[in-house]
Amino acid sequence: MNDGDERWTEGEFALRPWEAGDAEVVVGAFAAPEMSRQASREILSAADAHLWLSDRERDRQAGTGYSWAVVGRNAAVLGCVAVTAVDRRHDTGWVSYWTVEAARGRGVAAAGVRAAARWAFAELKLYRLELGHRLDNPASCRVAERAGFVVEGVQRGKLRYGDVRHDVELHARLATDA
């Protein structure tokens, strides 16, 4: 994906590759309790954030995952969108997203997901993209719906944070969807 490639722009938002200078934004984003529990490791420092960024680049190089910063017109990082768990046998991928607290409710995540889906269908030739959210996260459900993902069902007890299990609503979008 080229920085100037307008195909991966959605309204006032665009996708761009993560950069080393984004570490501070990553630390700030994962400082929120709802974010920190979803990270595969603690992200408390710039060094932790650089490891997180390195993991994103490693996945890109391996062809198993692609992650971008979602930026606004002023180039500020507002969030993240990713297509991971890329399965070439079935042409599928898993979509995830987050936004910094100040960007929530502005359509950043939905715009990023729409752009990433277009990219995955056009560049990777994937057929199916999936995403899931906890049932107690209606904002994430709105993102999925606004990005054209259709509800397919509930996965009971799929996630565990501490001692609490959460049901997850599964959404999907196909390359053939309008």
Give a description of the structure.
By secondary structure, the protein is α+β, with helices and mostly antiparallel strands. The protein has one domain (6-174): 3-Layer(aba) Sandwich (Aminopeptidase), CATH 3.40.630. 31% of the residues lie in helices and 35% in strands. It has 5 helices and 8 strands, in the order E-E-H-H-H-E-E-E-H-E-H-E-E. It has an 8-stranded mixed β-sheet, sandwiched between helices. Strand 5, helix 4 (108-123) and strand 6 form a beta-alpha-beta unit. The longest helix is centred in the first third of the chain and has 17 residues, at 46-62. The chain is globular, with a radius of gyration of 15 Å. The chain starts with 8 loop residues before the first strand and ends with a strand. Mean pLDDT is 92; it is low at 1-6.
Distance between the termini: 23 Å
Q: CATH fold name, please?
A: Aminopeptidase
**Helix percentage range:** 25-40%
Number of domains: 1
The backbone outline, from C-alpha atoms, is: globular
What is the name of the CATH superfamily?
Gcn5-related N-acetyltransferase (GNAT)
